[in-house]
Design a protein that fits this description.
The chain is mostly helical and 214 residues long. The chain is 45% helix and 9% strand. It has nine helices and five strands.
Length: 214
């Protein structure tokens, strides 16, 4: 797996304390998302992280993605989530490059279509969210070692969904559309739990509007 080396300051600066536990919530920048995906130990982990950071999937949704859930529509590539939180169905956009990576991986392994996109090591091919956490632990340690930034150790799988939601909001995507894609029942829940911090790209864009901050 190719490792990405970033120049300049790569410290994670977008963190907030959790409301309910002694830990930090993390929002990654675009460069940090690319680094995490690039530092993944293998293709399965890279795809899993991409499904979280690029499609907003929860951990239990990532391990339940099948090839037939991915479809091309007039809106572009879409991913069906058949059993979201509360067993709710939804559809969310999928980047074209991620769809191609998944299709290539499926063709390469020549696995039956009734198997998940991300296969486990057992006879059934089933994946567990615990395995996702293990992949995340390995990868964030690599990122911390590469950058010298200990804040990487706070990162969890759910922070990828948090990053995805906030990135959409920072790009002025209609919040109600974001709620629809992410499966939030109301705007208040989304704003309280996910939007908390704007992306570094949004901060830079807005700062550039102020002459004396340049």
């Amino acid at each position: 797996m190719h490792r990405i080396r970033l120049s300049g300051n790569t410290d994670i600066v977008n963190l907030k304390e959790h409301h309910t536990r002694d830990d930090m919530r993390v929002w990654l920048s675009e460069h940090e998302v690319e680094m995490l995906i690039g530092e993944a130990p293998h293709a399965r982990a890279s795809i899993a992280f991409s499904l979280g950071a690029r499609c907003g999937l929860r951990s239990h949704e990532i391990v339940q993605v099948y090839a037939h859930d991915i479809r091309q529509t007039e809106m572009g590539s879409m991913l069906r989530i058949r059993h979201g939180k509360g067993d709710k169905y939804r559809e969310t956009p999928m980047p074209t490059d991620l769809r191609i990576r998944i299709e290539t991986a499926i063709d390469y392994r020549d696995a039956p279509s009734n198997k998940p996109v991300i296969l486990g090591q057992g006879r059934t091919g089933e994946m567990s969210t615990r395995t996702l956490r293990r992949w995340m632990d390995t990868t964030k340690q690599r990122c911390a070692a590469t950058t010298g930034d200990e804040n990487w150790h706070h990162l969890t799988m759910h922070d990828l969904r948090r990053t995805w939601a906030t990135s959409l909001a920072s790009e002025d995507v209609d919040p109600l559309i974001v709620c629809d894609w992410g499966g939030w029942s109301d705007l208040r829940t989304f704003l309280r739990a996910y939007q908390g911090v704007y992306s570094p790209e949004a901060h830079k864009r807005e700062r550039a509007k102020v002459d004396w901050l340049k």
